[in-house]
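input
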Amino acid sequence: MTAASEVMATLCIAKDLMALAKVSCTIGREVNTLYGETYNGVKQMKENQFPDGIDPYKKPGDPSSGLLWGISNEKLAPQDSGDKKVQAYNYRICLTNNPGNLIPIPRPANFDSTWYELLLRLMKQTGKTTLNDYFIWTIKPNQKTDTNNENGFSTDMKGMNRGYPDASYADHEKIIANHTDYTKGLLYFAGHDQ
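output
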């Protein structure tokens, strides 16, 4: 089990224990006005939004081709409203530029380059084409990094954790596997796509 799946499993066990003890809990974002708070509810933050003008269709300009992977046709909820969604999940990644510590990033068995087409379109639209534009690189000892999500398309697998808090343990494993495939695929894509 990975560290991320251990954390997720621990959260689910805690939720299950609360249910058995008949302790109520809330999953998702509470409406901003419920407790008079300002940091809860739906937030539309400019730094994590896509700019206008990025074509969302598999075949640009053709709605009949369907939406790109990662695009939802769900209506955007009002600012500060509540919903049952939870913050996107991701893996914090340790990378290195030290050849003695280096392990090559292989092509994942379930690699699907279409998962990253939206990233290519974002790069083309914004002109931001370096890895520094899409990853946070915190330098750690021994030439290692703590790599995290940056910008609208990065290590967060947005929207793909829906249902995780209430899912079965089998479904938890599927969601974890999808996140693992996505993250490994993103690293492989960043290193190998033209």
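quick obs: The helical segments are 3-20, 117-126, 169-192.
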